[in-house]
Amino acid sequence: MKKLLKSLLLSSLISAPWTASNFVFGQDSAPAEEAKVVAAPTIAIQPPADDPSFDLMGEFVGNVELGEDSTEPWGLQVRPLGNNRFEARQYKGGLPGQEKFTSTSHALVGNLFGDYLVLSGGPWAVIVEKEHCIILDREGKKLGKLDRIKRTSPTMGAKPPEGAIVLFDGTNTDHFTMAETEDGLLKPGADVIPMFQDFNMHVEFRLAYMPEFEGQARSNSGCYLQSRYEVQVLDSFSELPTFNGCSSLYRQKPADLNMCLPPLEWQTYDIVFTAPRWGSDGKKIRNARITVWQNGVKTQDDYEIMSKTGAGKPEEPTLLPIKFQNHKDPVRFRNIWIIDRGLTAVAEFPIKSEN
Length: 355
Description:
Radius of gyration: 23 Å
Helix content: under 10%
Largest sheet: 8 strands, antiparallel, barrel
Number of strands: 23
Number of helices: 2
């Protein structure tokens, strides 16, 4: 037990903002060292081999013992930050989107030790291994076990209904300009040729694994509706709902719930968009509205979009194309289809997969 507590203490110290390597008493700065070769930051579009940090990333759920004959479900999301550092978040009631999920959460930090991870910062210490986590109290008593879970969107692979327009199914890019593909997947930077006013759209996307990057540099792209309104695509996994995070309306409104899955997992957007309305004098008489489901869970609920988002084109009556933003990160898209609500009756949306 003493060895375990010592290990936890060491983890906490290593997670502090300074270490002996960059703080020397009696010196204004650290002594000069020989130049070191710095490895390029990781940018992966396939699971990397021999990467213990990648193997520990993900979601875990289970029950935690709170007292005699009392247990409570908790969820845990773990993501690497590079250089063997990690951050994580514990959620009371399970993971975001699960039935008993609550807004109560705790941020954790930790460091990799061989093939396992020790997290601290919440009410308990957490030892993370590839397939499960162990929850320990301050005395080292086991309070519970969280098992790894891999979630899939209920609309993943949804087939377009009758009357829908298939924009991309991996076979061609006839509906796009400036489109490039790789292994049957659409790269960012493509503009949709047909232009739509009111529509429902299904999109599947995959974020790159970029652990050393932060914020807007972490697998960035976006679905620009009418080239004016951006639904952000970003690796926001294991964060609270973040302004400019995944499923947010860029620079206007964060997601109501962060439903971002780990990078390299396929995810879905199902979007209902109603364009603004204009008078004959060119003045706007009604704002655009949008509802977004990420991975089958509503993250924007009939939100009134007050104006263009971020670097979007100015609002005006003229239609403009949907754009899949190129932010120079290797995000990929597939299974994109759209229902033009001006031409097609909508019986059901989102549409769940038949799998």
